[in-house]
Amino acid sequence: MITKDMVIQEIVTKYPQTLPVFGQFNMGCLGCSGALFETLEQGALAHGIDVDAMLKALNDLIKK
């Protein structure tokens, strides 16, 4: 299960199938250094993204 306090890079490394969800939410920071230390919540807030909606989409995907 993915949580708000997981580092973005950790999520992508553990669940590579989540990449399209980051794109769907226009979170293109996966190639930047912020992804190495920012949590999902920090990244979402920085980009004006509803973190709860994104978290639901990510977890729905990995449950499949």
Short description:
With 64 residues, the chain is mostly helical.
Characterize the structure shown.
- The chain has one domain: SP0561-like (Orthogonal Bundle).
- It has five helices and no strands.
- It has helices at residues 8-14, 19-24, 34-37, 40-46, 51-63.
**Using DSSP, what is the number of strands?**
0
- CATH class designation: Mainly Alpha
Q: What is the CATH-assigned architecture?
A: Orthogonal Bundle
H/E series, N to C? HHHHH
Q: Write down the overall mean pLDDT.
A: 90
Which value, in Å, is the CA radius of gyration? Answer: 10 Å
| Separate helix tally | 5
Question: Which fold does the CATH topology refer to?
Answer: SP0561-like
Provide the β-strand percentage band: under 5%
Q: Largest sheet, if any?
A: none
Unreliable segments of 5+ consecutive residues: none
Organism: Syntrophomonas wolfei subsp. wolfei (strain DSM 2245B / Goettingen)
Pfam families: DUF1858
Domain DUF1858: 2-54
Protein name: DUF1858 domain-containing protein
